[in-house]
Amino acid sequence: MDDPSARTPGITVLVLSDPGRCTGRAEAVREQFEEELASCFGSATVHLRSTLLGINDADTLEFGSIHSLRDDYDGVDAVLILTEMPRRSHGKPLIAEILPGEAAAVLSYPTLGVVGVQRKLVALFMSCVLRLVDGAPAEARERYEPRWNRWTPPSDESTGQLHAHTLTGVPRTVFGMAATNEPWRTVPQLSSALAAASATGAFGIFYNSIWLMSAALSTTRLLTIGLLAITLMVGWLILSNRLWERAERAGPTEVFVYYNLSTLLTLFLTVLALYIALFVVILAAGLVVIDPDFMAEIMGGPVGFQNYVDIAWLSAALGVVAGGLGTSFDERTDLRQLTHGRREVLRRPDSDAERGR
């Protein structure tokens, strides 16, 4: 720790963040973080650098490059490493870890979840800095102390750790990992699936057998068919793109559970968005193309808006199933970079060999 009597007013913090959502969030809170630091230390400078830190053979972040990155800036008092990697310790998700010997802290972004992330991130940044650097007012550390979690005392290795709650930490981490996967950016990669889904779904507008079938099915069964279609497409995408991670190397298998759960959630949200978009398009087209009187003649009774909804829902389900098969014929569809496990491979020293796979 620094000697408070030897410190000059002000503080300089270097934030090293993984590319993508971590860097975006760090940039979004940078100004507020500087203001909070200035309120404690008089003045503050926050440097932000997007970089992908490597992983050593012990499955921990490689800190050798931190020193060289720190040397690029003058008078850095603390380094905060914001990573998208899920981390565990003592059977619980690890939110943050203090490394006094490195004057650094490692923060796992997914453990913050998806609600109030910017507020949590600023508070976590401040809590880590106040444990690394002396000279702030005594009440500052208490002000930024996490409300629902507590830092563990330094261990024999002189580190402090902040764990998530056992019950709420795991689902919050999985949802956070799905958010870092940015499922909304995955949809453009499924252009072949969308084309096949749209073509198949269009049959529901022109074939009255689908009209009759949709009218005969209950709402519960229609919802079940939609869920089954989404599940089938998610399963097919995982199998065809080899997205399921296996714990083939030594290390905590719980991390791979996180990887696979986040992949399932990300793909489910992606396919659900595709399904809803397809449903809306087919419903709009059906309202334009299908004449109510003609439909009533085919149905043998009065019809209403609900019939159009049922037709669009069933047609979208058929289209989604066809869309999953459509991805098999598009060599450009590669969702492997979507998963945390694949991105972790790129951090390893032998990643060049893995990239070619």
Helix content: 40-55%
Beta-strand segment tally = 7
Tally the helices: what do you get? 14
Structural class designation: alpha/beta
What fraction strand?
Answer: 5-15%
What is the approximate shape?
elongated
Question: What integer value in Å does the Rg equal?
Answer: 26 Å
Biggest sheet, open or closed, and with what strands and sense?
7 strands, mixed
| Average of the residue pLDDT scores | 81
Distance between the termini: 45 Å
TL;DR?
The chain has 357 residues and is α/β, with parallel strands linked by helices. It is built from 14 helices and 7 strands.
Task: Sum up the structure in keywords.
53% helix, alpha/beta, 357 residues, elongated, seven-stranded mixed sheet, disordered C terminus
Report on this model:
This protein is of the alpha/beta class and 357 residues long. It contains 14 helices and seven strands. It has helices spanning 21-41, 64-70, 117-132, 138-143, 166-181, 191-201, 203-206, 208-216, 219-240, 254-289, 292-299, 305-326, 340-345, 351-355; strands at residues 11-17, 44-50, 78-83, 88-89, 92-99, 104-108, 160-163. Strands 1, 2, 3, 4, 5, 6 and 7 form a seven-stranded mixed β-sheet that branches. Strand 1, helix 1 and strand 2 form a beta-alpha-beta unit. Helix 1 crosses helix 3 and helix 10 (254-289) crosses helix 12 (305-326). The longest helix has 36 residues, at 254-289. The radius of gyration is 26 Å and the shape is elongated.
